[in-house]
Amino acid sequence: MNNKITCRKLTKVFKGDGIETYAIKEVNLSFQEQDFISIIGPSGSGKSTLLSIIGTLDIPSSGEILYGDQQIHKMNNKEMADFRFDNIGFIFQQFNLIPTMTALENVMSPLFGRKVSYNKKERAIQVLEQVGLKEKMNFLPSQLSGGQQQRVAIARALVHQPKWLLADEPTGNLDTETGEMVYELLASLNKSKQCGVILVTHDPNLADRANTKLEMRDGEIVSVSQRQLV
Ligand code: ADP
Ligand code: MG
């Protein structure tokens, strides 16, 4: 399957107390598979809404979203959950690890109740090794630093080898140096062609290093720039 992402006239409107908020407005875009894309813009500009919809965690009010020729907006909940499991890994600012589970159990958690063709525990250890945390696999999140917790969350996102990693301000809760390590990890996963990355960030220095940078204002994409390769 071709994993190019295409969005056509994607709109999300939130209604409450008689007020309509257009979180995103008629967004058109297309991402080549294995691209590294950053999305930057002020708070409230629609970055998280756009990423959630691209990641099938939320549905648009109108518009279309396609992965290759698969029409995500026409899928039912079950089809969407299966599609997400097979294709998308999500990483959040707050890590969202389960506090009572070890690093290893957290990484295995997306696989619970799923039939897969590989050994779940072996795979989880393999991705923990990839993020440099194999020796911490039996630690609880509370026994890990913020940067280590985010690397566990990245291992969890990688466990089923997604085509795309979607990260919403993954360095937002980390100091600059730790954030840099997390960014470098995402960049190296992308470079090794393991997956495409869409990174939402507040940090212009990180955003500028992506291959493609989108800027959002008031629910719209106001600029798209490609980094010049030297
Ligand atoms: P960003 O991630 O760029 O800070 P968001 O996508 O979170 O922006 O929000 C875009 C706009 O949509 C904001 O005005 C926000 O208040 C509104 N919004 C987001 N989620 C909801 C929601 N669940 N209900 C109502 N309004 C929302
Ligand atoms: Mg946000």
Could you name the key traits of this structure?
Rossmann fold, binds magnesium ion, single chain, 30% helix, globular, four-stranded antiparallel β-sheet, alpha/beta
Verbal overview:
With 230 residues, this protein is an alpha/beta fold. The chain has one domain: Rossmann fold. Helix content is 30%, strand content 29%. It is built from seven helices and ten strands. It has helices at 47-54, 77-87, 103-108, 120-130, 146-158, 176-191, 204-207, and strands spanning 5-16, 19-31, 36-40, 62-67, 70-71, 88-92, 164-168, 196-200, 212-217, 220-226. The strands form two sheets. The chain has a six-stranded mixed beta sheet with strand order 6-7-8-3-9-10, with helices on both faces. Helix 4 (120-130) crosses helix 5 and helix 5 (146-158) packs parallel to helix 6 (176-191). It is globular and about 50 Å long. It starts with a strand and ends with a strand. Residues 14, 21, 23, 41, 43-49 line the site of adenosine-5'-diphosphate.
Q: Which architecture per CATH? A: 3-Layer(aba) Sandwich
Sheet of most strands: 6 strands, mixed
Instruction: Write the CATH fold name.
Output: Rossmann fold
| Count of structural domains | 1
Radius of gyration: 17 Å
Overall structural class, as computed from helix and strand content, comes to alpha/beta
Uncertain parts = none
Q: Quick summary of this structure?
A:
The protein is α/β, with parallel strands linked by helices and 230 residues long. Helix content is 30%, strand content 29%.
